[in-house]
Each structure stands twice: as structure tokens, then as C-alpha cells.
Specification:
Mean pLDDT: 74
Distance between the termini: 94 Å
Helix content: 40-55%
Number of strands: 2
Radius of gyration: 41 Å
Structural class: mainly alpha
Order of helices and strands: EEHHHHHHH
Strand content: under 5%
Length: 198
């Protein structure tokens, strides 16, 4: 509760008398200063036990937390051609889900090269790609699309390409809807790596 205040005396100042022939001013007694007591702020009551509460952590620390990866990483690839497609699908899915973590595409390729099992043909291939990138004047791991093409060239069996070329030429439309037939034809064209002219 604030202490009781004593009445405040306000000094007044007398205005000088007007010169002869002039009207006197309307206000003759003006206060020079008025003192008003400042309100007293009371501290909030302490919680039980008498200790003040702990301060909240600064908001900057919470905002600076890096994004976290989603799901577990794909199993290491050993270079087995029979597992190449399933490995690539798992790898691409993982990095698509974690696109916010790997916003830099070169960093994405670098991280993906760690999923190749050392001591195998796949590990040797990944090691060669790292050495090539680090040996360049300007270190670059190229784009994700380029990395995908290099992987496909290295690990997807050529037999699949030969089979796809044969199916492009021998895929009759018959009674099928054109869009269904064209989807199959396009899939084999991609696997055969045919260009527009072919």
C-alpha cells in the first residue's frame, strides 16, 4: 500500500505590475512547478517456497535448431544389379522426404555417396566420384539428375536396356487404350535410353 502523502505546497510567482496605460494580464499568479508523486509498482507475489520462477529460455535458441531428418537412411548398396532399382528408389525417396535438410543439391549428392558399401564395387564407384569432385579446381558434385544418370549407367544391367529396346519395337497396341499403351511404351523408351531422334 502506498505511504500517505503530505499536502504539497505549490509556490506561486507574482507577475510584475503592468506598465502605465496597458491592461493587466488575465492571469497573475502562475505556478512554477507542480510535483506529482510517481506510482509505486509492486513486484508480483513469489510462488510457494519463496524462490522466484526460472526465466524462460531465449527464443533465438529455439529458432536456430536445424531441421531433423525424417525416417531412417537406406541400407548401404553393395553394387548388386538385382538390387539397384530398389536401392535407388529408397535413396531418392529418403532425400525427397528430407529436402529441407539437404537444400544444397551438391550436399545432397555428397550425402548420398555415403550409402555405398565400402569394399564393394559400389563403394569403389562412390569413392571415385568423391575423388573426382574433390580433385577439381572448383569442388562440385553436380546435380541430382546427373548423379541419377551416372548411377543408372553404372548399376542398371544392360540386359534391361536390350529387353526394353526389343519391347519398344514389338509392343502391339491391339485393343488397348492408347494412353495405357503409350505409358508402357514410354517406360521402355526411358529404360532403353533412347533419344528423340531414335
Amino acid at each position: 500500500m502506498p505511504p500517505s502523502l503530505a499536502p504539497v505546497q505549490v509556490p506561486t510567482q507574482q507577475a510584475p505590475p503592468p506598465p502605465p496605460g496597458r491592461n493587466p494580464p488575465l492571469v497573475q499568479n502562475l505556478p512554477t512547478a507542480v510535483q506529482v508523486p510517481a506510482p509505486i509498482q509492486q513486484a508480483p507475489p513469489l510462488p510457494p517456497g519463496g524462490n522466484p520462477p526460472a526465466p524462460n529460455p531465449p527464443a533465438a535458441n529455439m529458432a536456430a535448431a536445424p531441421p531433423r531428418t525424417i525416417r531412417t537412411t537406406p541400407n548401404a548398396f553393395d553394387g548388386n544389379p538385382a538390387k539397384a532399382k530398389s536401392f535407388w528408389n529408397a535413396l531418392e525417396n529418403y532425400y525427397t522426404l528430407n529436402d529441407a535438410v539437404y537444400a544444397n543439391k551438391g550436399q545432397k549428392v555428397t550425402a548420398a555417396l555415403t550409402h555405398f558399401k565400402m569394399g564393394t564395387s559400389a563403394g569403389d564407384w562412390a569413392s571415385d566420384r568423391l575423388a573426382t569432385a574433390l580433385g577439381a579446381t572448383l569442388i562440385t558434385y553436380s546435380t541430382w539428375a546427373d548423379f541419377k544418370n551416372k548411377f543408372r549407367e553404372q548399376f542398371i544391367p544392360p540386359q534391361t536396356q536390350i529387353e526394353s529396346i526389343q519391347k519398344i519395337h514389338n509392343l502391339p497396341m491391339g485393343n488397348r487404350e492408347f494412353n495405357e499403351w503409350y505409358q508402357d511404351w514410354s517406360m521402355h523408351a526411358r529404360r532403353a535410353n533412347v533419344d528423340e531422334q531414335t
